[in-house]
Fold Beta-galactosidase.
Amino acid sequence: MSAPRPGLGAVTRGRILFGGDYNPEQWPEVTWHDDVRLMRDAGVNSVTVGVFSWSRLEPRPGVREFGWLDRLMDLLHEHGIGVVLATPTSAPPPWLGRLHPETLPRDADGRVEWWGGRQHFSHSSAVYRRHAAAITEDLAARYAHHPALTLWHINNEYCTADWGDEAAARFRDWLRARHGDLAGLNSAWGTAFWSQGYGDWAEVLPPRHAHYLKNPTQVLDFKRFTSDMLLECYTAERDIVRRHTPGVPVTTNFMPLWAGQDAWRWAEEEDVVSVDLYPDPRDPHGAQHGALVQDMTRSQAGGPWMLMEQAASAVNWRPVNRPKPPGLNRLWSLQAVARGADAVCYFQWRQSRQGAEKFHSGMVGHAGEHGRAFREVGRLGAELARIAPEVTGRHSRADIAVLHDWHAWWASAHEGRLSTRVDHADLLTTWHRALWRAHLATDFAHPEHDLGAYRMVVVPQLYALTDRAVENLVGYVRDGGTLVSGFLTGVADQDDRIREGGMDARLRALFGIRTLHEWWPLETGETATTDAFDGTLWSEEIDKTPDAVAEAVYRGGDLDGLPAVLRTGRAWYLSTLPAPDALRDLLASIARDAGTGPVLAGLPADVEAVRRGDLLFLLHHGRGTVTVEVPGSHRDLLTGTVHTGTVVLGRYGAAVLAP
Ligand code: GAL
């Protein structure tokens, strides 16, 4: 048995990590001294260094220039600031691409992704991997015993795919491991269709540019392969740094709800789960988007997690980028802490003056230490330090799990589907939003996870399910759980082969569907009226079994009189998407019957309540003033005030209540 891995607690030690990506190579050394002074002022205790430093560390092949990083690490340490040290492998130096063009990825059209941006590496390139391993090895050896080192950050937002020749060779190896021989591959990919039968492995390619619709299982396997190849790149570097520093935890930062990585699988390989999160300050659903990503990250971590990046104010990659209005940075930061973050960090410390992100905010913006953003950052740093001792390390589990699986997402996204309006991530968001608006706390789970601890499990949509997942859902209901599923669930198996009858027979039996005759997708603006609500997006022509109850029935149109919502015991099936308020109310009422309810009764619409251990966070996402009824007396950790019966929250106000 290997020793247990250190987690985030080994780094935080009762503090909330506060800081951000720090790119000192963009500044003269004299500025570094100003930086550490301001970091101290702002309560920064952690910075992430080296994310894009490869060409500085290795300006020519094999040359190492660590002197500047030595001085920087020493300076940070002298000022009590810990370092999350990144391997620089997400942005190879130009010489690598020039000397070894095969390290550059190609897109599906065969175009090369050149240097001049970032992430221009082929996950499959042996040369890239060798150079990445070498710089990682030397970095780890050099700083293994540096007292500033707290955490390893591998690469950055792994996200590249590659359709090139070396990737094709690795894809074949990957496919051999998955499907055995060519007969297995031909069967899984259904190559009897359109004369696609493969007679030699050399014919098997990534799904490159093609005349018309590509083979869906080839596309699905390529997405799996891409996630696995990137994971191999991650674990290779992780294993190097672990060998040098067994006591230092390792992370890599996820993008939120990102289609390119099976994050359930990845999280198992990390000591600390971290995520980057950039809700749009102008999006009325921004807070819920944040809540979704935070719920998912907490669930992947199974404990405290790290908000690796957020923006102090504006980003620069939306069509129109507005700053965060006063108070919003604080509110969204506390929202992350409420949902289990023990680290609140930013991209980036000091706003760049040059390069592609010079209009992206920093903790220290172009306005410098007198700018509003920095002043707000400093106040937040002080508040986080105040609440940290009573907050860190605590974990909460919700009563409700929302199921999500990347493989189902990938399979569902094929271009030959019945409606491009149906999108896995949109549905996940819509269902989570309904639960969030009902003030119901949610975890996320994988369909093969043990669901026994949850009172209610909801499946916005899981188009493809393994047999194991199907059995898991059936078993969950058999053991007394309440399951609510949306349409297009269990339609296909893991190879995207449609299940007999258009939906897995075990699931049809579970929900009381005798025959699923036809799918009836809806146009934009079109609704399917039922006797209970208006359905949107989708509808279905279903016959029910005698024991199933039609909880809502289509009225008018081609489906008149057919069931829209079916229930058999504790298993619910929604063949359409109820309008937002109806979905919220339906899920709230099913939750009540399942024995769970809102985090706090009687909450105003704009106020979110989140429990973390026995702490109660109140977060006001509106701009007016609200009064929240909270039975009993509570001490607000932010202010020290004791509230009895009510808490008044102003614009973007927050309270962290201890019993
Ligand atoms: C992240 C990335 C950072 C920075 C940031 C800008 O995706 O990791 O390096 O580019 O976005 O919002």
The chain has 18 helices and 26 strands.
